[in-house]
Design goal:
The structure holds 2 protein chains of 2 kinds. Chain A has 13 helices and 14 strands. Chain A is α/β, with parallel strands linked by helices. The longest helix of chain A is centred in the middle third of the chain and has 17 residues. In chain B, 32% of the residues lie in helices and 24% in strands. In chain B, a hairpin with a 2-residue loop joins strand 13 and strand 14. Chain B is globular. Classes of the chains: A alpha/beta, B alpha/beta. Bound molecules: adenosine-5'-triphosphate, adenosine-5'-diphosphate (ADP), iron/sulfur cluster (SF4) (2 copies) and magnesium ion (2 copies). One iron/sulfur cluster binds next to loops of chain A.
């Protein structure tokens, strides 16, 4: 079977990307915890429709990057299934699986280290396009044309950037080059892990909007990983927001719903921690803080958040809540005592 | 060791020293000649205040922070100006032993990337003793006690942290260790460069409340350098906005956020993704921040990206670098039309 046939299968309109019960366990790093294991993902379910968006938020170490790396084929998973347009990748041989993973591209936090400093933008894009032309039986002349196309798609002026080296471009432009390079494989999905956190503040929105536009113009879906919840709204208000805590999804639903009406205390703590622009905003009336910082030593029994939750009861410390509905049928949470609280800052 | 910059008392509360930065210019030697990264900056830190210095990458924030300690490294140097600190004098003219003592002594600092600036081969406790040695602390026991007290104040176990190596601590813990090391010798002026960058929101919020509390308890004058307006909004009484090595606007934080006057400040605030309201209201700023080599030599450094200039190109914007003028008490703006009392908003559409 030639590569192009596989591509055709991947691009066939379908179900998008779906993960079911993804589990990943690492051996712990460092001397203190040597010998023990870290449950980076404890059975994560998610779905991104073709051209759709899903954002993952949560504290450091909660498993966001691990999930993104699994999706991009950079890390194996221990249990669960991962499917692309209905094809279960779990059961495929590595050789059959790779073409799918190649079309799920990772956009990293640091655009500078992602680009070879000794090569011009022209060279950076020519390599993957040459491969792509060979795979899909396109003529050489297609390469230069496509090069200009992908640059225009990411909002760069081809004549300005092609001859330049990464250090001659701003952070925002570099990240656009990284995205353009990802587009050379006609990706099914982009995994953007903190993709704007190193970009200048004045240019961030531009990159977020670009990712949103690409969902429409080329039908790519976006898995967006961030600490900064507000940026998730700019990738697509129509997308879903997943709140992950110690490897478990503890709340999920439409982005705007979760931001406006979070019911899980952990989500509420996360949203409460977002700086209030005093002068423009006033803090939400029910702002919430965890009772303790996150620690490796916190118990795995019961609700994973129990050690830090201001509302924990004895039941929480022994029994683990499953994802359940509350109000909005699209909103799921894993808490015995879901309650709406006004935690997000409101315009003054 | 006793610090020279004793906190003074205002209304029975300890407050840190006043700091007056005058006409400060710091330049780096480059193949294209010596270029200023900080240009003729004037800034006063009121005793006991927290000032937020905000700007994008390359605007000169870290260079400013280093200058506060007279610690600008070659190929850079302070070419002009002074930094007067109450009780200590002009830091720019300090040298040798006196300067080394002031750094980490009266002036506590946590440099950018403090998360990786601890010595990976030594425990935190060993590094604390190194600090004691370099600052000739007699009573090491008292110093360790003080360190543990600060750490527990910040929610950490002193014993455990002092026995730890850098890689055994999370990012948020390292930031707190940095703050401890900055304060343990009884600093009264605290300089923090990007204290929460790369932390998640909960750790950030935790560090910011620690900064606020420790600042108040110990009676400090604090300068927080950051690219994040949210951080400034949470901790700072006053904000100074930096662009292309200039301070383009300064004033009380809430006032500047509510009613920014300089076109750059307006654009920057308007570019912040927000949690509520119509997402389409926020707009990226066109163009990109300048680097040393691309800072315009003549006229206003913000001109190329300025919506106000695009809508109403004034000659002085092209010819003269605007100086900061006080438009209301405590509120300084470096922009020609603002100084002339003209409205800032001029049909923004034309500028896009
Ligand atoms: N290669 C590895 N070996 C051992 N443990 C690992 C490895 N990669 C990740 N982990 C652990 O798995 C957990 C999840 O890590 P992950 O990097 O996915 O978190 P994250 O949510 O992306 O955090 P951050 O917001 O800091 O980027 C953490 O406890 C981490 O220490
Ligand atoms: N050691 C150096 N040599 C030459 N240029 C430098 C050096 N350090 C900083 N610069 C330049 O000075 C300007 C200001 O840098 P910096 O103070 O680090 O800005 P910020 O902290 O606001 O990002 C930038 O253009 C930067 O490239
Ligand atoms: S289940 Fe209990 S401990 Fe867990 S989040 Fe809900 S209230 Fe808190
Ligand atoms: S001085 Fe002119 S160019 Fe500079 S910010 Fe003001 S209006 Fe814009
Ligand atoms: Mg990560
Ligand atoms: Mg800096």
């Amino acid at each position: 079977m030639s590569e192009s046939t596989v591509d055709d299968v991947v691009s066939a309109a379908g179900d998008g990307i779906r993960g079911r019960g993804i589990v990943k366990t690492f051996k712990a790093r460092g001397n203190v915890l040597a010998g023990s294991t870290v449950q980076a993902l404890r059975g994560v379910d998610f779905h991104i429709p073709p051209g759709g968006a899903a954002s993952f938020i949560g504290e450091s170490g909660c498993g966001k990057t691990t999930l993104g790396r699994i999706l991009a084929g950079l890390e194996d998973y221990d249990a669960g299934t991962l499917s692309v347009n209905g094809v279960d990748l779990t059961s495929l041989s590595r050789r059959k699986r790779d073409p799918y993973f190649r079309r799920i591209q990772m956009i990293h936090q640091d655009p500078y280290s992602a680009l070879n400093p000794t090569r011009t933008v022209d060279a950076i894009l020519t390599d993957p396009l040459t491969l792509r032309a060979r795979q899909t039986g396109r003529p050489k002349s297609w390469i230069a044309k496509r090069q200009r196309e992908v640059l225009s798609l990411v909002g760069l002026e081809p004549d300005y950037v092609l001859s330049r080296y990464p250090h001659q471009l701003s952070g925002g432009m570099r990240q656009r080059v990284v995205i353009a390079r990802a587009l050379t494989v006609d990706p099914e999905a982009l995994v953007a892990d903190e993709a704007v956190s190193m970009i200048d503040v004045s240019l961030r929105l531009g990159i977020l909007r670009l990712l949103r536009e690409l969902r429409e113009t080329v039908g790519v879906s976006v898995l967006f990983i961030t600490h900064d919840v507000a940026t998730a709204r700019y990738i697509g208000a129509d997308g879903d927001l997943y709140v992950i805590y110690r490897g478990q999804i503890i709340e999920r639903g439409p982005t705007e719903t979760i931001i406006a009406n979070p019911v899980h205390p952990y989500t509420q703590c996360l949203l409460s921690a977002i700086p209030v622009l005093h002068g423009l905003e006033v803090p939400g009336a029910d702002r919430l803080t965890p009772t303790e910082p996150l620690a490796d030593t916190q118990s795995d029994a019961g609700c994973l958040f129990a050690a830090r939750c201001p509302f924990a009861t004895d039941r929480c410390r022994t029994e683990r809540p499953d994802l359940a509905h509350h109000g909005d049928p699209e909103q799921l949470h894993a808490c015995f005592y879901p309650e709406q609280r006004r935690v997000v800052a409101v315009s003054a | 060791m006793t610090a020279v910059t004793q906190p003074s008392e205002v209304d029975g509360k300890k407050v840190g020293p006043a700091v007056r930065i005058s006409d400060l210019t710091v330049a780096y030697r480059t193949p294209a000649g010596e270029l200023p990264a900080v240009s003729r900056i004037n800034l006063e830190l009121a005793p006991g205040s927290i000032t937020g210095l905000v700007g994008e990458s390359g605007s000169g924030k870290s260079t400013m922070a280093l200058a506060m300690l007279n610690a600008v490294q070659k190929p850079g140097r302070i070419t002009d100006g002074s930094i007067e600190i109450d009780g200590l004098g002009d830091v720019v003219s300090l040298a040798g032993k006196r300067l080394r003592e002031a750094r980490g002594g009266e002036i506590g600092y946590v440099f950018q990337a403090a998360q990786n600036s601890l010595n990976p081969l030594k425990t935190v406790g060993k590094q604390l003793l190194d600090l004691a040695r370099s600052h000739h602390v007699e009573d090491k026991r008292a110093l360790v006690r003080q360190a543990k007290e600060l750490l527990s104040r910040m929610g950490l176990s002193g014993d455990r942290v002092l026995d730890s190596y850098q890689h055994e601590l999370s990012g948020g813990m390292r930031q707190r260790v940095g703050i401890m090391l900055a304060l343990v010798l009884n600093a009264h002026l605290l300089v923090l460069d990007e204290p929460t960058t790369a932390l998640d929101m909960i750790s950030q919020s935790n560090i910011l409340s620690i900064i606020r509390d420790v600042h108040a308890e110990r009676g400090l004058t604090t300068l927080v350098v950051t690219h994040d307006i949210g951080v400034v909004a949470e901790v700072a009484d006053r904000v100074a906005v930096m662009y292309g090595g200039r301070l383009v606007e300064q004033g009380p934080t809430t006032e500047v956020l509510k009613d920014p006057k300089h076109p750059y400040t307006r654009g920057l605030i308007n570019a912040i993704p927000r949690l509520t309201g119509d997402p389409e209201v926020a707009q990226p700023l066109p163009g990109r921040p300048p680097t040393l080599g691309t800072i315009p030599k003549q006229g206003c450094v913000f001109r190329e990206r300025c919506a106000r200039y695009a809508a109403d190109p004034r000659e002085d914007c092209e010819t003269t670098d605007p100086v900061a003028s006080e438009i209301t008490p405590g509120r300084l703006v470096a922009c020609h039309p603002v100084a002339a009392g003209l409205p800032v908003e001029v049909s923004v559409e034309e500028g896009r």
